[in-house]
Design a protein that fits this description.
By secondary structure, the chain is of the alpha/beta class. Helices cover about 45% and strands about 20% of the residues. It contains eight helices and twelve strands. The strands form three sheets. It has a five-stranded parallel beta sheet with strand order 2-1-3-4-5, with helices on both faces. The chain has a four-stranded antiparallel beta sheet with strand order 6-7-8-9, with helices on one face. A three-stranded antiparallel beta sheet has the order 10-12-11. Bound molecules: calcium ion. The site of calcium ion has 5 residues, from loops. The site of calcium ion (CA) has 5 residues, from loops.
Length: about 230
């Protein structure tokens, strides 16, 4: 349900991951787990998590790199879990946009307090009336924060999906041709297939229209696409 908080545990040490899962679920959070760095990145970007617990040393891709890449597309709160004495990791983690860090081994009560704090801060930002808003129906885009919500829920978009949606929102109720979209979003020097527009429209629809069971993006046959209320 919309009011349950989903925490994504990225940790390759099974014992720690399992411990975190039990403790967090006991507190009423929903959890998902991942032990591989590359898959974790994919799931964070595509998923709809309220907070990520991110181990630093992981197979596939390390936590620093994951954090850096997530921050290109999402402001989901991230708490890094670092091994003892990795002081440089702590500093680097905060530099690349992590919200907080915990040194292992940690007291669970301390971690729970930091989770509540990170969630609270994130929600406070969500509610502040700062900056420009682009809307269609109950979809809101906050360009200054690079965020999109539908019915108050975060939608995680890739850079391209975001740019495409932003262009369409800025031209709400205007039918845009594939060529216009291609030039604006992919650039004049793009030489690939124009089908790429249709492909990305499909991605957006899966994350928005299909997920929320509501039509935001309309097809105008033989012409192109339009976003409208
Ligand atoms: Ca590890």
């Amino acid at each position: 349900m919309a009011d349950s908080t989903r925490i994504f545990i990225v940790e390759d040490e099974r014992r720690i991951a399992r411990f975190l899962q039990i403790e967090l679920e006991h507190e009423g959070y929903e959890t998902e787990m991942e032990d591989n760095g590359e898959r974790a990145l994919e799931r964070i970007v595509q998923g709809n998590y309220d907070l990520v617990l991110l181990d630093v040393m992981l197979p596939g891709m390390d936590g620093m790199e994951i954090c850096r890449r997530v921050r290109e597309v999402s402001q989901v709160p991230i708490i890094m879990l670092t091994a003892c004495d990795e002081v440089e990791d702590k500093v680097a983690g905060l530099d690349i946009g992590a919200d907080d860090y915990m040194t292992k081994p940690f007291a669970i009560q301390e971690l729970l307090a930091r989770i509540r704090n990170a969630l609270r801060k994130h929600r406070a930002t969500d509610e502040s009336p700062e900056g420009e808003k682009l809307t269609v129906k109950d979809l809101i885009m906050y360009p200054s924060r690079y965020e999109v919500t539908v019915q108050g829920e975060d939608v995680q978009l890739t850079k391209k999906e975001y740019s495409l949606l932003e262009y369409m929102l800025r031209n709400k109720r205007t039918v845009l041709t594939r060529d216009q979209i291609l030039q604006e979003v992919w650039g004049y020097d793009y030489t690939g297939d124009t089908n790429v527009v249709d492909v990305y429209i499909r991605y957006l629809r899966a994350k928005i229209d299909d997920r929320f069971n509501q039509k935001y993006i309309w097809t105008v046959r033989g012409v192109g696409y339009v976003v409208k209320d």
